[in-house]
Write a structure and sequence with these properties.
By secondary structure, the chain is an alpha/beta fold. 44% of the residues lie in helices and 14% in strands. Helix 8 links the parallel strand 6 and strand 7. Helix 1 packs across helix 16 and helix 6 runs antiparallel to helix 7. It comes from Catenuloplanes indicus.
Length: 400
């Protein structure tokens, strides 16, 4: 039986958490069997990147599609929101939706694997038997946006997105036979909001960087994440406003690394003394190799945070909130505090010898439990148990 894999966000470059997880899954499946991948290009996706993806997935048929533009996109939210509502999607999902790709899926039969939240848009109206791999439960994560909203217009928009996202998610769940999430906490959220039991939990994992020799500088801190993700930016700003002063007074510096940086955010963040706004780095090894420790100040967000795993894989000691460490097994490489002041105090109270010991534990944890090889093993084993793959890794005729 044919296996069709769908993702609605082109995974190259792997410049944020979602593409990293997608690439992990695509590579893991390619090791086991051939399949057909249907993927939506980003606006900036090049043919070279499409060719690179094909080279990364030998034996996989890659079909790429453009996203379908909004008919009235020139009107901004006034044009996008009604069209997205009529399509039964949140606006951000509609922006990644391709009608030609959906039409292609309607002609296919067999098994389907939808990767990521927006991929849920392709489940209705097809004859495929679907498994949906979810990074987070939208019904829960969008409600966090309401609590964080500043001003009446933002709050009204956030409430609209809660309703649209919850309905979209429920409709997609009704079309899939099985579903996986990234953590036990996400499984609890899925059950709470949709009454659906997760078929299995598949924690995100990261590759261990090759030829990486850390040479940390004393009192050099790093922050890693997408500046375009609201929870990341809100957490960072709160940390800088409430926790940075004592660290700076003690001589610490902080380098901010990640994609999605706007000119306004760069200017606002660079105004803090001792803070360097580096932006996107294609190769993280040089900048993370100089870091004595990392801070992950998150007070909202869902699922396993790829940024935390990436830092650990690069042998960077992590000081995180509970949310920033969700789904990470207990480890001496991570220290937890749930206030900006607590994070600062934890960093200030950790000796250089303790930091060295934490740095050793990070890669050890990733290699033992959260590596790409472990991810592949768990994915294939879980899909086999659900009946989507047989013992040899080929699609099975019966599902869960």
């Amino acid at each position: 039986m044919d296996l069709t894999v769908v993702c609605s966000y082109f995974p190259l470059p792997a410049d944020r958490g979602d593409p990293v997880r997608v690439l992990m899954m695509l590579r893991a499946l390619a090791r086991v069997r051939a399949y057909t991948l249907l993927v939506v290009r980003r606006a900036e996706t090049t043919q070279e990147q499409v060719d690179e993806l094909r080279e990364m997935l030998p034996g996989v048929r890659v079909e790429d599609f453009p996203a379908t533009p909004y008919r009235l996109g020139r009107l901004g939210p006034a044009g996008r929101y009604p069209e997205a509502l009529a399509a039964g999607m949140p606006p951000w999902v509609r922006s990644r939706y391709s009608r030609p790709m959906h039409a292609r899926l309607r002609a296919r039969t067999g098994l389907g694997l939808a990767i990521g939240e927006a991929a849920g848009a392709y489940l209705p109206g097809t004859r495929l038997r679907w498994h949906w791999d979810k990074a987070n439960v939208l019904a829960d994560s969008t409600r966090q946006d309401v609590a964080e909203a500043s001003g009446v217009p933002h709050r009204l928009r956030a409430r609209h997105l809660v309703t649209a996202s919850t309905r979209f998610e429920a409709a997609a769940l009704a079309c899939c036979e099985t579903v996986s999430v990234t953590s036990d906490a996400e499984a609890a959220r899925l059950l709470r909001w949709h009454g659906r039991t997760a078929s299995f939990t598949l924690a995100s994992c990261v590759p261990i960087p090759a030829w990486h020799t850390p040479q940390p500088a004393a009192r050099a801190l790093v922050w890693l994440g997408s500046f375009a993700y609201r929870s990341n930016l809100l957490g960072l700003r709160r940390f800088l406003a409430e926790g940075w002063t004592p660290l700076r007074r003690a001589g610490y510096t902080l380098t901010l690394v990640g994609s999605g940086l706007t000119d306004r955010s760069r200017a606002d963040l660079a105004a803090y003394d001792g803070v360097t706004v580096a932006g996107y780095a294609e190769d993280l090894r040089p900048v993370l190799g100089r870091a004595a420790a990392a801070v992950v100040p998150l007070w909202s967000g869902a699922g396993v945070k790829l940024k935390t795993l990436t830092l650990l894989a690069h042998a960077v000691p992590v000081f995180s909130t509970t949310i920033g460490a969700e789904g990470v097994p207990a480890t001496a490489a991570v220290r937890i505090a749930d206030t900006p002041q607590g994070l600062a105090e934890a960093i200030l109270g950790t000796s250089r010898a303790d930091l060295d010991a934490m740095a050793v534990e990070g890669p050890r944890l990733i290699h033992a439990e959260l590596s790409e090889e472990r991810f592949a093993e768990r994915l294939v084993r879980s899909l086999t148990r659900c009946g989507y793959l047989d013992a040899a890794g080929t699609p099975a005729a019966e599902g869960c």
